């Protein structure tokens, strides 16, 4: 089958994912998963979750470009993008991935700062007198 494209998002991070038949190579920003995330094993597991759940670790090649956000948000964006690409690749994966919540876009993002406050909610110390 031809290449399949999907976009994953989390906070301000975006991951552009291309998936095709192959032997299990995962390239993120021109690097392997180990080079990209170093020793952050729990985040690596999160990235690989859609492939492990659908048992596609060794049958598809994935190329990812990420931008925006930090490494944790980017990793979650990659996870979302891989899940969406797998569903576009084969619709049967939807029933497998949906119960794990892998197709849901995590809508939580940073709350904006309000005027008269130090941060979004933090204010100066209250003095009664």
From TrEMBL:
HAMAP family: Ribosomal_uS9_B. One of its GO terms (cellular component) is cytosolic small ribosomal subunit. NCBIfam families: PRK00132.1 (NF001099). It holds the Pfam family Ribosomal_S9. This is Small ribosomal subunit protein uS9. One of its GO terms (molecular function) is structural constituent of ribosome. It comes from the Bacteria. Keywords: Ribonucleoprotein, Ribosomal protein. One of its GO terms (biological process) is translation. InterPro entries: Ribosomal_Su5_D2-typ_SF, Ribosomal_uS9, Ribosomal_uS9_bac/plastid, Ribosomal_uS9_CS, Ribsml_uS5_D2-typ_fold_subgr.
